[in-house]
Amino acid sequence: MIISILRHGTAEDKGTKPDAERHLIKEGERELRAVLKLARKAGIKPALILTSPLIRAVETARIAETELGCKNVVETKVLLPAVAPAQVWKEIRTHHGTKEVMLVGHEPQLSRIAGFLLESPLMVDLKKGALMRLAVDDNSGPPRGVLKSLLTPKLAGGK
Length: 159
Prior knowledge:
CATH superfamily: Phosphoglycerate mutase-like
Strand order of the largest sheet: 3-2-4-1-5-6
Strand content: 15-25%
Distance between the termini: 30 Å
Number of helices: 5
Number of domains: 1
Structural class: alpha/beta
CATH topology: Rossmann fold
Largest sheet: 6 strands, mixed
Shape: globular
Number of strands: 6
Radius of gyration: 14 Å
Low-confidence stretches: none
Helix content: 25-40%
CATH architecture: 3-Layer(aba) Sandwich
């Protein structure tokens, strides 16, 4: 299974409204589109996008849906920031047989998920709008992942 991990794009400043209601700003949308256009050129096409229900993540997932041609976007509470990576893996496993999944969410949870999937105490500086790809053995048992790529908005020319 290929698991792409996409951090939401740059959103409205904290404190301007409740955290769950913060929208992407134009710069965040531009950065995401730059990253996702390169991802599309690289052949990234998830069959399923799982997203946090927070507005900035849902907006990010909808941009990914459009840019990558994925028609299956599902909001899930397991991608709320405080949920443990093992719970996310359990959710992914319910979609067994899906060849490529994208997770859209927040830091530091996404870095923790990457470390869990890679079986490593890895620390990742996952910038807003960045996309990480992992190949993960989805047989029964703990995940066994390999980092395939990491693309930031700056590298994609969107920043």
